[in-house]
Amino acid sequence: MITILCAGSRGDFQPYIALAQQLIKLGKEVRIVGNKNFENFITGYGIGFHPISVDISSLNIDPKLLEAAGSADNPIKMLLAFNKMKSYGIYTTKEYFEACKNSELIIYHPGCTIGYFTGKQLGIPTVLASPFPMHKTKEYLSVVMYGKSKPTALNIKLSYTMLQGMLWMASKSSIKSFWKKQFGSLPQDFRAPFEYHNKSEQPALVSCSNYIFKRPDDWNDHIHQTGYWFVEESNDYRPDPALAAFLASGEKPVYIGFGSMSMMKKHDKLGKLVVEAITDSGKRGIVSGFGQPAKLTKDIFALGSIPHTWLFNHVSAVCHHGGAGTSAAGFRAGVPSIIIPFSNDQFAWAHRSYDLGIGVKPIYAKKLTPKRLAAAISEAYNPTIQTKAKMIGEKIRSENGAKDCAKIIINMLK
User: Fold this and answer.
1) Model confidence over 241-266: pLDDT tens digits?
2) Which one of 56, 123, 165, 234 has the fewest CB atoms closer than 10 angstroms to its CB?
């Protein structure tokens, strides 16, 4: 049994579902450990699931803390938000530890470092699997500072110290408390374990295309980045008849959806804003995650949850908050990106798409207006941006990130 430890939102789980799918194809039994609310989502792909019984709602976490974490638009705010949230990790640490017992291998998200120390304690090999580049390099800024700081040698070094420090902070205190209670003392070499993954029996895997952020030449040979990890959706997926009819009734629409950002109370007027912007741009549009906004026209279709890997192949441009998974799906589709970053690493994907010429200049969420969004939508139809987006999309589709990384894991176990 291979056990994958994951945490976060629905988008955070998707790369690990993709990796699990490929491991299952290679004959391995796999289960994902995570928040109980994701059970149906994960088992729907035929993947085993081990639920963590506590979640955000049962812990009664202060909504203001969640809002701060989801709206941290600079590195200092990110650190403060992570520091305030860390105390809640203690409630899940023991369950993650127990879930790893009797595993053949532990694969862990960088926010679940309990996986590394559990593996050391139980004699089980571990693999760090990251949804973004996070290992130290001198070549470019980390995803928490890319686009927001000048890429000087000092800033680059600081950016990785900050990124790894934030991820370590998310689990350090809870592991420390649990370990002392369970074993009487701290684990050996108790510090951020990310750079420990530098040998063949303990590799690190990264879900990222080399056409978006090239694998740095100064990484060691046991850090593997071979492409994004995309979930394989069922071939029998059929869209809602109303959506299919809308798509067939005119030119390809622009997609606009901000994921969990649109559900935050401080952003409850986004639906009205995006409808106004689409109308002003003169384009057809699909809006997702806003319910049924007022003033919808025959040229704007509102929907709920839908696989991005399917939908993005039927639109002319994608506008979203810049989550790593949503960004990857947009890049892969080969259509221009309009990224409105709200917090954390979203700024990196927004600026990177602009730097590569496959997206428009980012509009930070706090500066978003109907007029600015309408102008960005129009700019996305620039032929140069469209051509570059199409070319990079083709290159990304030529990669087999999840499949290649699954093979690396199988070879390691042999």
Assistant:
1) 999 999 999 999 999 998 766 554 45
2) 123
Dist CA 257 CA 328 (whole Å): 15
Burial level of 98, CB count in 10 A (0-12/13-18/19+)?
Answer: exposed
Please determine, for residue 10, whether its predicted confidence score (pLDDT) is greater than 90: no
Q: Which residues pair with 35 in a beta bridge?
A: 52
d(CA 197, CA 149): 28
* Residue 236 within a domain: no
**Residue 234 counted as domain residue:** no
Range of the domain at 299: 241-397
What is the per-residue burial (b if ≥16 Cβ within 10 Å, else e) of 146-161?
bbbbeeeeeebebbbe
For residues 183 and 165, what is the distance between their CA atoms, to the nearest angstrom?
A: 25
CA distances from 142 to 88, 103, 138, 358 (A): 26, 32, 10, 20
In a domain? residue 235? no
324 and 315 in contact (C-beta within 8 Å)? Answer: no
Let me know: does 118 contact 102? Beta carbons within 8 Å. no
- Separation CA 371–CA 117 (nearest Å): 51
Dist. CA 186–CA 181, nearest whole Å: 10
Helix (H) or strand (E) holding 312: none
Half-sphere exposure of 4 (CA within 13 A, CB side): 29
CA distance 221 to 241: 49
Confidence of residue 42 (pLDDT cuts 50, 70, 90): very high
Binning the chain into helix, strand and coil, the percentages to the nearest 5 are: 50, 15, 40
Taking each continuous run of H as one helix and of E as one strand, the counts in the chain are: 16, 12
If asked whether residues 218 and 259 sit together in one domain, one would say: no
Answer whether 162's CB lies under 8 Å from 237's CB: no
What average pLDDT does the chain have?
Answer: 88
Which uninterrupted H or E stretch holds 311? helix 308-311
Residues 27 and 148 in one domain: yes
Phi, psi for residue 25 in degrees, rounded to 5: -60, -30
Decide: residue 38, CB within 10 A, 0-12 exposed, 13-18 middle, 19+ buried: buried
Q: Which residue has tokens 């912007």?
A: 277
Residue 168: CA atoms inside 13 Å, Cβ hemisphere, count?
14
Q: What is the pLDDT of residues 167-198, one digit of tens each?
A: 998 888 889 989 998 898 898 889 999 998 87
